[in-house]
Amino acid sequence: MPRGDKSAYTEKQKRKAEHIEESYEARGVSDKEAERRAWATVNKDEGGGKKSGSGRGHSSSNAASHRGGELGGKASASRPAAARSASAKKAAETRKSHAHH
Fold first, then answer.
1. Radius of gyration for the chain, computed over Cα atoms and rounded to the nearest angstrom
2. How far, CA to CA in Å, does 45 sit from each of 15, 66, 91?
3. Closest by CA position to 46, among listed 60, 35, 32
4. What are the CA-CA distances from residue 13 to residues 16, 57, 60 (Å)?
5. 40-86 pLDDT tens trace
6. How many angstroms separate the Cα of 59 from the Cα of each of 51, 56, 93?
7. What is the pLDDT of residue 7?
8. pLDDT score for 1
């Protein structure tokens, strides 16, 4: 099987790659790079193509999609500790006052 042959991938994996590719293109990534990243993501999540045969299936980890949560929080982390603390105290006070209603 030549490199780049997608015959070993399921229809679901192909749809997933297409969706990821469209997302990258919408963010301004070139067509070729978007396709490369999309297939790399599918491979990372699902361990490559799913070949047929009993006992050869593996569950999808979706590891790449879980990474999104790690990227957030930079704006909050860059604020001084006193400002974060004040926000937390205000939020706690709001929750406390709303609980009595």
1. 22
2. 14, 10, 37
3. 60
4. 5, 13, 10
5. 999 988 888 776 776 676 777 788 877 766 667 778 888 899 999 99
6. 13, 10, 44
7. 86
8. 66
